[in-house]
Predict the structure.
Amino acid sequence: MSELKNDRFLRALLRQPVDQTPVWMMRQAGRYLPEYRATRKQAGSFLDLCKNAELACEVTMQPLRRYPMDAAILFSDILTVPDALGLGLYFEEGEGPRFRKTVRSAADLAGLNTIVADDDLDYVMNAVRTIRRELNGQVPLIGFSGSPWTLATYMVEGGSSKDFAHVKTMAYDQPELMHQLLSLLADAVADYLSAQVRAGAQALQIFDTWGGSLSAAGYKEFSLKYMQRVISRLPAEADGRKLPVIVFTKGGGQWLQSIADCGAQAVGIDWTTDIAVARGLIGERVALQGNMDPSMLFASPQRIRTEVAAILSGFGHGSGHVFNLGHGITPGVNPDHVTAFVDAVQELSPQYHQVS
């Protein structure tokens, strides 16, 4: 594997000194880029794009050609694991992901496939290997998965949900069945992420998109506990250096202290949490990633720059901050506004990393 030319993202995650705050964006390979839309059209469908290693590599590289990002993230989807388990993933235009089968009973759970990530999700590993070759050491590659709870919400609901009625009914009324499902998913996710590391991922992010839908007690029992289980089973190193893991619970700002104790090196925060408060609570234990409101990218470049300055100032001096949005970039954003965002981080952050 090639020598890493820019490792400030990995260094910041481990709270080591950096020259400036590293920056990347969740969903940085996505529909806001015209070149992405063209490649997706060429692929035929979103799933076909995920399963074609060359095209998945192409869309991963597209934002890096436009912007000096400090990390690439594997182009895939969080629902690859439930798909491999046999639920039949498909996408409805304008409706998001759907499954042909759901898991709502012990019989449904017993009917799931047994999967080995290297074999059953080999298309993801092929994409990771292809991207690493193409990156040629330019920046690190992030692998990822959905959290066990987030995957369970889609598997029980059969797709996206506003009220999570089915999955919460199972959690609160049939907790034993829910814990069986979450245990199965935690083991599958640990295997999946470990396979991505073997294929070339240099950092990992666990997307706990729906953890914030739970009560405080429910979050610890059904989400955090299983992310801890995943993290405890991951390799300690990638490419001869410590493997950093980021946990991102959308809507989890009120549980920062508990999340910081889960074993991850970094905690992602959404835009509803003040980064200064987050650093005061946990920033000496873990790195922080975030957390500009994605909608700020619809504002003028000057307003974007002002917001970047405020977030950098909120975090303050020293390492341990990876600049990101508080959730994925919105599809309708002008790509030039992303330029303003990344330029602002690069121009304004070095003052916070000067050695006194």
